[in-house]
Amino acid sequence: MALEQNHSADYYYEENDLNSTHDYSQYEVICIKEEVRNFAKVFLPAFFAVAFITGLAGNSVVVAIYAYYKKQRTKTDVYILNLAVADLLLLCTLPFWAVNAVHGWVLGKMMCKVTSALYTVNFVSGMQFLACISIDRYWAVAKAPSQTGVGKPCWIICFCVWTAAVLLSVPQLVFNTVNDNSRCIPIFPHHIGTFMKASIQMLEICIGFVAPFLIMGVCYFLIARMLLKMPNIKKSQALKVLLTVVLVFIVTQLPYNIVKFWQAIDIIYSLITDCDMSKRMDVAIQVTESIALFHSCLNPLLYVFMGTSFKNYIMRVAKKYGSWRRQRQNVEEIPFDSEGPTEPTSSFTI
Length: 350
Known about the structure:
Elements: H1 34-69, H2 75-91, H3 94-103, H4 108-142, H5 152-168, H6 170-175, E1 176-178, E2 184-186, H7 193-229, H8 235-269, H9 275-293, H10 295-305, H11 308-329
InterPro entries: ACKR4, CCR1-9-like, Chemokine_rcpt, GPCR_Rhodpsn, GPCR_Rhodpsn_7TM
Keywords: Cell membrane, G-protein coupled receptor, Glycoprotein, Membrane, Receptor, Transducer, Transmembrane, Transmembrane helix
Pfam families: 7tm_1 (PF00001)
């Protein structure tokens, strides 16, 4: 998890810090980051608690509806279901990181590896499923949507997304460990450390932000252009949804990836040699990554609850539950088999 990767870099030395004369006047001043850790102890648990509660509630509703109630699914439904699962698993790692911010990592090396890998898998897969949703929305607008339901290619795409995310988490499984300061961080062999850390950072930026952003931008731009050319349709609501989705993605993800890119450049060229600048970078990565995580809480609102068909489906489930409650309360007057079957709902659309 990137929130912890800078905490081990508390000391900075000049290039000649290992000369044989041991001239201690050549050493840099020790960079003590106690205020950064104090900020993390307050900010991260509070933010993670809000994200965990809100995200757990919204994504749980999505999973429950799609998994247990909505039987006729489209490709977009499958992608949204996988997105909600990824968001839930990601949010479930937050309590561990909240405790880590206050007390350090107390769960051992194996849990450090597993939790870090799980975080990466679900963060990256969530971004990829956003791209899949945008592609499927484009095809739904560009041509008549298929009525054959979910096909084999859809499941293959989901499998590929999860596989790519798991492969990207392998470095966390291999190199993450608990250091002497009880921090769960990646520790690379000296001969490959710089190259490996920078490569992982750049790969995460490309797969977790650049590729999804380009796909979403192109697809939603083409959708907006087609909607503007279509006569006799209500365009304003659809265009507002498209604009909201893109803006939220940019606002939540762009700052975090800018900071990650700067980190990768610093790993290669050692640009940060000032203690105050290092502290500001630590705080920046904590704040921007927390904002990026909050996208997991907004996904149900952006991709599900803004859709008319899904809101109608929730109302039907609520009415069905209310009818069941009334039957239980009036069991002598209303038989249990009097409830008629519910009609299938249409696919979630823009």
